[in-house]
Amino acid sequence: MKTFYDIHMHVLNLSHPNLSSYLFQEGLIDRLIDGNINVLTRLGLVGAALFLPNRLLKKIVNRKLTSGHPSPKDVVGNCLSFFEIPTEYQLLVLEHFLKSGQPNNFNAQKHLEINGTTYDKILLCPLVIDFGYKNIENSVFYNLTPKRPVINQVSDLLHAIHIYYRFHLDVNEQQKKMKLLPMTSDYNARKHEKLFEIYPFMGIDTRNYHFTDIKRFLNNYFGNFSDTESGKARRERLFEKMGMLNGSMYRKNIDAADIFAGIKLYPQLGFDPYPDDARSLKKVQYLYRFCVERRIPIITHCSNSGFKVGDYNAFTHPEKWAKVLEQYPDLTLNFAHFGAESKSNQRQWRNHIIDLTRQYKNVYTDISCNNMTPEYYKELADLLQPKANKKINVANPELYKRVLYGSDFSINLLASKTNSYNEYLKCFADAGLPHANDLCEYNPERFLFGE
Fold first, then answer.
1. For labelling, which of 80, 178, 199, 328 has a CA lying 20 to 30 Å from the CA of 358?
2. Does 386 or 439 have the greater pLDDT score?
3. What stretches of 295-403 show up as alpha helix (H) in DSSP?
4. Phi, psi of 148 (to 5 degrees)
5. Domain containing 86: what range?
6. Nearest residue to 326 (alpha-carbon basis) of 350, 302, 360
7. Is the dihedral of CA 96, 100, 105, 110 positive or negative?
8. Count of domains in the chain?
9. SS3 label, residue 113
10. Which of 74-83, 357-366, 391-400, 416-425 has the highest mean pLDDT?
C-alpha cells in the first residue's frame, strides 16, 4: 500500500486565530488605506467580512486587491466559504471534493495518481497552532485582546477526526446541501477503508505554561513514545487510537496518549527557540530533550511572513536554531515553508536550511504554501538535482532526501491563485519533479515515524 503524505495542513475555523491581534500588530487598517497589502493580509479581510458593512468592504477590497490578483470576490469568498464550514465537516468536505471535483487527480478506482504512481491513502498532518498568547495592547476602546486557549482548537480538531471515521458525507449537488450518513457500528474495524489517515501535531508555546505544566502536558500526550520502536510499530499504535477521542478536552480523566504524532512551534507569535533567561530556557530545553529521547518530530514555522503579531523574524530565522541543534543534534526538526522570504529574492533563509540538512541527519524542510507555480517548481527541481544545473550551488547534494511535501491547506487559499486542494495536487503532479515520491512518501514517512 502506497501513501501520499501531506505533512503540513490545518483544520481551522475563524474562532481559532486571534484576528484582532493580527490586524493591529500588522497594521492592516493602515495598509488598507495606503494600498500596501500582502497575501496573508487577506486573512484580515476574511475576518473583516464578518463585521464591515457590505458596501464599505466591497469598496476597500475592490480598490486594493484588483490589480494582479484573482478577483476579490473569489479570494475572500472562497476562503470564507471553507472557513465557515463547521470544523467537524471539513475533512469530509475535503475528501468529497477531491474525489468528485475538478481538477480530478483520482483514477476510476478512486485512488490518487501522481506522475504515474498510484497512492491508496492520503496521510494528513493537521497542525495545531498555540494562539493562546498573553493579551496584546492596541489603541481601540475595547483593548483587551482575547486569548485563544489552544484546548478549544484541539477539541474541535479531535471532534472532526472522530466524525470523519464514523460518517460519510452525502451531498445533494442540485440543492447544494449535505448531511452525514453513519458508518456501520464497527467503524474501528473499517477505519482502514477511509481515504485519509490523520496524524495531528500539537501546538505549544512554552511561554504560556509553567515548567511543571509542560512536563505533565508532554507526558500525557507523548508518554508512550520511544526511540526504540520501529516506524511501522509507531504508525500502527497511533492509527489504533485515531478517531477514538471525542468532545471537550476540559473533561477530567481523558486518555490523551497517542492522539498526536508530533509538536508544532510558531516563532512568529513570539516563541523563542532558545531564550536568554534561565527560566524560559529551562522549559525549551526540557521540550527538546524529551523529543530527542522519544524521537518526537517537531515542525517549526520558518518564513518571514505568516500569522505575525510583532517583529519576530529573529526568532523565526533558521540560524536561531543553530544553537538548539548544536546542543540536540539528534532532534527531528522540520523547517516549514523552506524558509520562504516574502518580498526578497536572496534565499538566505532557504540556503541556511539547506546547510543545516547537511550538518544534521534529522533536519528536514517542507514546501508548504510555496508550491503553487511552475516557476517555483523549476527552481526546486534545480535544487533537487544540482548536477543537472551547474549554476546552482547546493550545500547538500542529497537534499532530495530531506524535502517534504506540504500544502498548508486551508491557509493556502489566502496566499495563492489556486482555489482548491485539487489544484494544489495538480500543480505538484504537473511539475514532474525529480524524486517526487521521495518528497511525498519516503521522506515524510521517515520524518513522521522513523525508520
1. 199
2. 439
3. 313-316, 322-327, 348-359, 374-384
4. -125, 90
5. 3-449
6. 360
7. positive
8. 1
9. strand
10. 357-366
| Cell 508512550, residue located | 224
Most confident of 35-49, 192-206, 414-428: 192-206
Say whether 8 sits in a helix, a strand or coil.
strand
In 3D, which of 106, 117, 103, 123 has the Cα closest to residue 423?
A: 103
Q: Please report where in the chains the cell 474562532 appears, as a residue.
A: 15
The three cell numbers of residue 201 are 501535531
Please state the φ and ψ torsions of residue 5, each to the nearest 5 degrees: -100, 130
- Scanning the structure block, which residue is given the C-alpha cell 506540504? 406
- Could you read off the pLDDT of 175-234 as tens digits, one per residue? 778 889 898 778 777 899 999 999 999 999 999 999 999 999 999 999 999 999 999 999
Strands 363-366 and 333-335: parallel
Average pLDDT, the chain: 85
Strands 196-198 and 121-126, bridge-based pairing:
parallel
Model confidence over 110-134: pLDDT tens digits?
899 998 899 999 999 999 999 875 5
Residue listed under C-alpha cell 538566505: 348
Q: What is the crossing angle of helices 211-222 and 278-294, to 10°?
A: 10
DSSP string across 294-313: HT--EEE--BS-SS-SS--H
Cα atoms found within 13 Å of the Cα of residue 75, Cβ hemisphere only: 26
Kindly calculate the radius of gyration of the chain based on its CA atoms and give it in whole angstroms: 21
Task: Determine which of 37-41, 348-352, 369-373 has the lowest per-residue pLDDT on average.
Answer: 37-41
